[in-house]
Amino acid sequence: MKFKFAALPLMLASAVASAEQYNSFTDVDYTSTDFGTVDVDTLSFQSQYYFGALETLGPRKEFNYILPVSNIYGGFAYSDANGSSSDALTVGGEYYTGQWKVFGELQDDDFSTDYSVGAGFLFTPNFLAEVEAVKPEDQDTVLLFRGQYNHQLTGNDYIGFTAEVDDDFDYRSVSSKYFTALSGGQYLTAGLSMTDTDNSDVFWGGDIEFYFNENTSIGAGYAEDESYYFDATHFFNRNVAAKVAYGSNRDFDDLDVFSLGVTIQL
């Protein structure tokens, strides 16, 4: 019994030491979408830098549900559809000062330029409320009200919730994510989301991901419109990971979406 109590601090120290810290995340992805005679190839690049270190929860790509750390991000995507090309640019950032948060984003593509700005308040480390104004090009501004709540369970385990509505209550959305550590250094996440609008039926989707260890995972997702996907991620070391995914739809047998990507975390 004395040995067990003496070993406990060492076990806790080992668990703490195993957590990794990262400031930047960069993804490069190639996606091929085939649907009948339509063939779309997309190459995308996204990068995000946090001005404070983020600590993993075990798996190298799992972090806290709410991340109150100032950051900037940007992304670019180029698509070619049967010889016709298009591109899209996204830039944005979030700034935290005390319990307050301000954020903004610009999205520009061949069809429109959209802006959004917002502010939030962190009532507790586990409860964040936000209001966001979204201005699509040639359309009226829409106000979105959003709340995020993280319910901490044992250890790093948690279940998180996000709810969002617009100013006219024409749009309503809720989502949740569950993270838990299993025995033997394995982990599991599960997510569920539902969106309801006045012009359509409730749309729902769910996903699950199983981690064999901190480096390797497989996942799957399914949605109300009969779409589904399978994916896998593997970290070769603490900084570089490879991703592969396949998606389709049960109502459209000739739809195939393949994706390959690389993630760099520093």
Give a topology summary:
Elements: H1 2-18, E1 21-35, E2 38-55, E3 71-81, E4 84-97, E5 100-109, E6 113-124, E7 127-135, E8 142-152, E9 158-166, E10 171-181, E11 187-197, E12 200-211, E13 216-223, E14 227-235, E15 240-249, E16 252-265
Antiparallel strand pairs: 1-2, 1-16, 2-3, 3-4, 4-5, 5-6, 6-7, 7-8, 8-9, 9-10, 10-11, 11-12, 12-13, 13-14, 14-15, 15-16
Main features:
mainly beta, 16-stranded antiparallel beta barrel, 16 strands, Porin_7, signal, disordered N terminus, Porin
Overview of the molecule:
- With 266 residues, the protein is mainly beta.
- It has a single domain, classed as Carbohydrate-selective porin OprB (Porin), CATH 2.40.160.180.
- It is built from one helix and 16 strands.
- A 16-stranded antiparallel barrel has the order 1-2-3-4-5-6-7-8-9-10-11-12-13-14-15-16.
- Strand 8 and strand 9 form a beta hairpin.
- The N terminus is likely disordered.
